[in-house]
Amino acid sequence: MKIVDVQCFPLKIKPKEIYLGGDPDEGAEDYYYRPEYRCVYSRKMETCLVKITCDDGHVGWGEALAPVVPQVAAQLITHLFKPLLLGASPFSGNVLNARMYNSMRDRGHTAGYHIDALAAVDVALWDLKGHILGQPVHQLLGGAFRERVPCYVSGLPRPTVEARCELAREWQGKNFNAVKLALGYGVAEDLDNVRAIREALGPQAAIFIDAHWNYSVHEAARLAEGLKAYDVGFLEAPLLPEDVAGHRELRRKSAVPVALGETERTRYQFRPFIEQRAVDILQPDVGRTGITELMRIASLAETWNLLVAPHLSVGLGPCIAASIHAAAALPNLFMLEFQPPVFEVANSLLRQPLVCAAGHYALPSGPGLGIEINEESVRENHRSDAC
């Protein structure tokens, strides 16, 4: 049994609602700079899917988290990884991962699009193995610690505090009793938002904060001190991700758990945060790590008695399904992220929808990732333009 084809599908999908409440200007360019996050975002939902086919007809789907220029990941897979994959056994995942990782070892291979592309292939290989063996991915990972995966509603993308409170109450009415606020607008404004959400949801709700790397150690410590009164569950991305020492100092000062990890892609990048006691909750994203590396990161975290809350932003069907399977198989899971507008788009590419209800993801039970890609819908949104 061997791999005979690798196909990539960079996608650009026009959503009903711009991710995190961005400007929906129809005449504007796809990409725009968001100064509050210091990142480029797209007005479309962008990703890169990969389809790997075996000589016996079995197929596996994967996905890279590629929210901008997804054709870059597609080009890397097509021209760099595909020659390494063709003719190989679909069960040689560790060997293939090592070859793909090493393929650019002397050319800045440790992060960025190269690892994102690797993650997509890794997810597809797990899906492929599951289909060949007739087993769900969580079973291949050693079994599920839980049949439903707890989650929190992420972002509350509304322009005013009042609108955010209303949206939070709507989700609470659907038995989603955990929310994360996308903030980082200054200590005082962030505390005003948290105070309003706490008053709107009551003491029983779980509230988390994403500060999007906007603070200094001193400012983040002030914010954490203020958050204590509102029983905030974690403070995510308070400092620039390069600042390991700053996170270590903040964690010593903060009564609120510190969370980070969406920018890191390998256990080597997570290791200094773990060893220097600079983090409480790790947030690897399967669309940037792949399933194999996410499980390695989680195992490393477990040896230090740390929790894992996988990051999940604009990844679509394969990325979400892979996150659910991995989360189910983690002994040290905290919660998984849930992005409602993204979830709707993701399900538009599937023949049977993924399910998230009453604060939990349902664990897909079919072989592999437990999803069936609607390839016609994928091809309708396929962007074949080269870099």
Structure explained in plain terms:
This protein is α/β, with parallel strands linked by helices and 387 residues long. The protein folds into 2 domains: 3-134 and 374-380, Enolase-like, N-terminal domain (Enolase-like, domain 1, 2-Layer Sandwich); 139-362, Enolase-like C-terminal domain (TIM Barrel). The protein contains 13 helices and 15 strands. It has helices spanning 70-85, 93-102, 113-133, 137-140, 161-173, 187-201, 217-227, 244-253, 267-275, 286-303, 317-328, 340-347, 375-380, and strands spanning 3-13, 31-34, 39-42, 45-54, 59-64, 148-155, 178-182, 206-210, 232-236, 258-260, 281-282, 307-308, 336-338, 356-357, 360-362. The strands form 3 sheets. Strands 6, 7, 8, 9, 10, 11, 12, 13, 14 and 15 form a 10-stranded mixed beta sheet that branches. Strand 9, helix 8 and strand 10 (258-260) form a beta-alpha-beta unit. Helix 3 (113-133) crosses helix 10 (286-303) and helix 7 (217-227) packs parallel to helix 8. The longest helix has 21 residues, at 113-133. The two termini are 33 Å apart. The model has no long low-confidence stretch (mean pLDDT 95). Residues 161-257 form the Mandelate racemase/muconate lactonizing enzyme C-terminal domain. GO terms for molecular function: hydro-lyase activity; magnesium ion binding.
